[in-house]
Amino acid sequence: MKFQSRRSFGTLLATKFRRLRKKYRALPSTTKLRFKGGLAVAMLAAVGLIATTQIMGAASDVTGVVFNDYNGNGKRDNVAATNWTTAVDGGVPGVTVRGFAADGTLCDTKTSDANGGFTLSMGNCAGSKYRVEFTDLPAGYNSSQVGDDSKTTVQFVAAGGKASLGVYRSEDYCQNNPKLVSSCYNFGAADGPNASKQTLVGFPFTASGTTPPTMNLGTVSQAGVTFGQAYRTTAKTLYTSALMKRHSGYGPGGSGGIYKTVVPANGSGTSAASLLVTIPNAGGDTHPVSDSNCNSRDGQTSRNNGQCWGYDEFSFDAVGKRGLGGMAMLSDPKRPANDALLVTNLNDRQLYK
Question: Contact 271/261 with Cβ under 8 angstroms?
Answer without folding.
Answer: yes
